[in-house]
Give the backbone structure.
Amino acid sequence: MTVSMPKIPAVRKYKRETTEVSGCLKYMIFGFNVLFWLLGLGILTIGVWAWSEKDIFNNLGKVANVALDPAFVLICIGTVTFVIGFTGCVGALRENTCLLATYAIFLSVLLLCEMTAGILGFIFKDWIKSQATIGFQTFIIHYREDPDQQNLIDWIQEDWLQCCGIEGPKDWDKNNYFNCSSRDVGSREACGVPFSCCKRKPNEIIKNKQCGYDVRKPGFTFDVSKIINEQGCLEAIEEWTEKNMISIASCVFILLFCHILGICFAQNLRADIFAQKAKWH
């Protein structure tokens, strides 16, 4: 006698649908923005550390011109880079459409500002030149008061452009320490220029910090042209810009292209996320 066993209903296997979000796109945005996030954090940390070393947080009156303070510029650049990197990094990792939209908006605004600055800079070249002159004059006047500005102007004169002053060494008369009348108050640097104006000597290991003493003094017995750079930094930067125009244009193009690429990637990832959510709902 056969016993009929009850039929066991077949178990249906449901295949879990895979996400439609592109993993390559997601982790590409995440990876690049992690680097920018860390870069921004590093720049911001350096800027804050520089201000704390100068005790600026306790005495903001020490900053003669905050827009020209190198530490403040680093803080601004670091903050912007950190915020953009954070929104892109977390937005991509968490597939957060709000953060990705914020990331795309930040890049769009930055792109618009860069393009506007480039166009205005080309149109108002004389105004830019006059503002650069005013800024350099401020650096010269406060050369001994702010170590960051001092290091910056020394780098410009010695390492970058090999120049001296705005239009020439005589511009250092604007500084109280290097003014020729400062001899009356005992300044050894009177009628001189900073060491960064001096020409580099072959195989020089230790820089002579007194090489610019008395070079503007009437009756100076040595050939000044062999000791210091007599070309002004304004003329030197114009020549440098003309010589490196192709490199500058290439860097600007790459920067703008990266901004556009980042905006497109963020928008595509947002579209993928919205498509996934619509499918599951």
Residues 13-19 have pLDDT under 50 and may be disordered. The helical segments are 23-53, 70-93, 97-123, 125-141, 147-160, 233-243, 245-280.
